Amino acid sequence: MELYQLKTFVAVAEERHLTRAAERVFTSPPAVSAQIKALEDELGVRLFDRSPRGMLLTEAGSRLMEEAERTLASAHRLRTAAAQLRGSAQGVVRFGTVSDPVSLRLGQALVTLAERHPQVTLQLHQGLSAQTLASVQRGELDCAYVMADRESIEGLELQRLSAVDLVVALPTALAEAHPDATLEELVGLPWVGTGPGCVMRSHLEALFASARREYREAALANTEGAVRSMVASGFGAGIVRLDQAEQAERQGELKIWRGWRAHTWLCWAALPAAQQSSAVAAVKQALLEAWG
User: Fold this and answer.
1) Based on the structure, what is the number of domains in the chain?
2) Does one domain contain both 31 and 62?
């Protein structure tokens, strides 16, 4: 039995869905299914029943869930004790971040950081990915969450954390006025963009180029999260992260145009490891653990 199998067991129990559990433990649905099957075989009991409501714990699964959580908690305490024996880092870390810290798992990382390194303090600075990257390169920030298409950036350590889907979001009124808008019609609508160099701006320009049109800057948002707010307020169409767009659509704030989707990456960026302080290294470790 491996700890990762117990983590997967807990994830499926809490999410009740193989795909969502796979995203949470950073693997594929078939791998999650295989891990659950291996755990059931080793324990000799069925842990889940499949139903229209998803993956539901059996009676045996519910009782073993408590043991799994206790085992994982014990493993966490063991790692924490080892970290304390090694000595805690200390200092202030200037951390750049894009919006929506909940989906960025920043809270989870902060809890781990506080347990292991209570002398490390984070100063959060929110902004566009391009501006944040430049600040890290200039030494104005120590590390950052950014969205980036590139696998590497010269002079920086770049760790990919999660794939990010991008979609076109429309104000509700615009979507109702153009229910079956073509790409050619779409690029003729008012738009909300971000500044040059931002990954969302590059995808917006690529979208216009696919329609043989040049994007001309109009309404400008100063953060990626502000694009969603401005679209919802009726300023115009915009490119938004899929998770944010789906949440806003459920709340009746905007509509997703289904004719286009692009992909980028959420990354952690910092100066090379040799130039990182022990406090930055501690933040990095907490973040990578939060992302599995």
Assistant:
1) 3
2) yes
